[in-house]
Amino acid sequence: MTSTVPPTTGATTSPPAPARAIPKLAAALAGGALFGFGLALSTMIRPDVVLSFLRFKDMGLLFVLGAGAGVTLIGYRLAPRLMSRPLLGGTFGVHEAHMDRSTVIGAAIFGIGWGLCGVCPGPSIAGLGAGSFELGFAIAGMAVGALVHGVTTRPGG
Amino acid sequence: MLPLPFGWTHYLVGGVFIGVGVALLFVLTGLVGGMSTVYSTTWSFVVRRPFFQQPKLTGSRDWRLAYAAGLVLGALAWWLLFGDGARVAVTIPAWRLVVGGILVGYGARLSRGCTSGHGICGLGSLQLPSLVAVLTFMATAILTANVAARLLGS
């Protein structure tokens, strides 16, 4: 490890050590695996199921979203109360959301695309694990969309 | 009554798994894990433009790729345990996946969140902007899917 450690003068407010690289990557892999298992079990990796929700033929997606957000809410609320820092080190992050034009216009564009193809970023990747290789088309599209966004956006935007 | 031709239990249990995955990442590392950002952070490996070289992107690109790899492994585990032996085939035409994908990728990054970033993490943080984003993309997605079904027949 060659990272520079800032000198601690007061010693009363020294920042907690960041999570080490390998355990952090393993944690991301494990969290992602549970996420992907849930997407597959709930059939959200199938675009036809998502489109049938959007056409009011199968409202199951509401249960997925409700349970996912509900469990996340419990974790996000409880963890910082019960622990001074994450188990592997670092600090508890906060989801960044801003009420501005970009949030709303971006969401509107996202929805048009989602309604056309039935695929959103998580399932586009997870579906590969169930052999849905056609999702490569959606992944390529999303990569292009993210590239265009980055090229046309200033840093900080 | 809600239309639920395939029942609701696998939807609820799947949603719980998704929430546990997001919460586990948070408890272990403090990281907030939406999925669309990985599409920007991965470009940062090869695109030198200032936007992609921001620390918030370069600093999270490694764990976001591991998170994405976990998604594939998790779905693979489901397929091995509960799949019927055949792969899950996608019947949506390729052009719809590509065009829809471009709009999804651009829109999610402009909005700074997608179904997981705003829907799971944002609602899980009781963030009002995320609720507005979710209601907005649900509205345009419902509109688009129904218009597409009329015009394209599926």
The count of DSSP E runs of length 2 or more, i.e. the number of strands of chain B, is 0
Question: Roughly how many Å apart are the termini of chain B?
Answer: 24 Å
Strand content of chain A: under 5%
- For the record, the count of structural domains of chain A works out to 1
Secondary-structure element series of chain B: HHHHHHH
Main sheet record of chain A = none
Overall outline of chain B: globular
- The parts of chain B where pLDDT drops under 50 for at least 5 residues are none
Please state roughly what percent of the residues of chain B sit in beta strands, choosing from under 5%, 5-15%, 15-25%, 25-35%, 35-45% or over 45%.
under 5%
| Broad structural category of chain B | mainly alpha
Helix content of chain B: 55-70%
What overall geometry of chain A do the principal axes of the alpha carbons give?
A: globular
Gyration radius of chain B, rounded: 17 Å
Helix and strand content put the structural class of chain A at mainly alpha
Distance between the termini of chain A: 32 Å
Q: So how many helices of chain B?
A: 7
Overall mean pLDDT of chain B stands at 96
Classify the oligomer.
Answer: heterodimer
Q: Note the main sheet of chain B.
A: none
